[in-house]
Amino acid sequence: EMTSSLVGSEMCIRDSYDSGAANAAQLTDLCAALQNSAGMSSEMSSGYILAANSAYTLHDGVDSLIDILDGQNSIINSTSAGLQDMAEATILAAASAAQCGISADEFSALAATALDGTAMSGKAAGSMLNSIFNTLSNLSDPSIISALNSVGISITDISEGSNALRSPIQLISELADQFNTLDSSSKNSIADILGTDAASLTAFMSNMKSYSDNLALYRASAVSLIDSSAATSSELNKAVNKFSAASVSYTHLTLPTKLEV
User: Cα separation of 118 and 204, whole Å?
Assistant: First the structure.
């Protein structure tokens, strides 16, 4: 089991350095902890950690990243959303969420809303959310503005005497309020504009009533996903230390082809 963890850690080390993450050794510890504590594959743990880190941290440590994992774990513990599905959704949609101004807690609550009780897989939920976020980051497109206006949704609010763009969360929430009142043709049109299918969007919109509860669960997280003993095992740290000596520059590091365990 330890050999398997170290092989997975080697993969995460390589992925971390290849991505240019300055906190690569710490990310590798987290990958190993996910593999040991959550039973996640090396590929999934690496993708999950790197996607969340790239979207929502400033490459200056892992405290904020651990907060994201713990917040998502808090939601998972109280809903039917699973860790594997949450990881897949994070891999596919966290970057586009961050780019359109959606915070880590908001994204996590939206991902859980798409997953909890909807029968959507993590890949399906992540793909749908990614399309929605990409669309809502392009509100200069007249077709998007027209589609939202057609169901009574304005992309702007009057703020201090001038028009201000509304946040993606505001637009998604208002669309959810309107969506179930629409006929099938209108639902299909909105789904097309948002780059997804009507069935998935309908399930997500119908479940938006749980968004606030999911957000509260994230913010109230008390139990850590990470088993600290897994992240600090002496065997793992010996492997990590081969690649993270303080005198070595990450940008000039040449990794060996195989870890010596």
Answer: 7
Q: Which helix (H) or strand (E) holds 258?
A: none
* CA–CA gap between residue 45 and residue 26 (Å, rounded): 13
3-state SS, residue 158: strand
Measured CA to CA in angstroms, residue 217 lies from 16, 52, 104, 212 at distances of 29, 18, 13, 9
Q: 14: which 2 tokens? A: 């390589």
Contacts for 210 with CB less than 8 Å, ≥ 6 apart: 79, 112, 113, 116
CA distance 252 to 102: 34
Helices H / strands E in the chain, number of each: 14, 2
Residue-wise pLDDT for 117-150, tens only, equals 899 999 999 999 999 999 998 888 899 999 999 9
pLDDT of 60 reads 59
What is 164-218 written as a DSSP string? EEPPHHHHHHHHHHHHTTS-HHHHHHHHHHTTS-HHHHHHHHHTGGGHHHHHHHH
pLDDT of residue 260: 42
Residues 6+ apart with CB under 8 A from 232: 29
Burial of 64 (0-12, 13-18, 19+ CB in 10 A): middle
Which residues, 6+ apart, have CB-to-CB distance to 166 below 8 Å? 154, 155, 156, 157
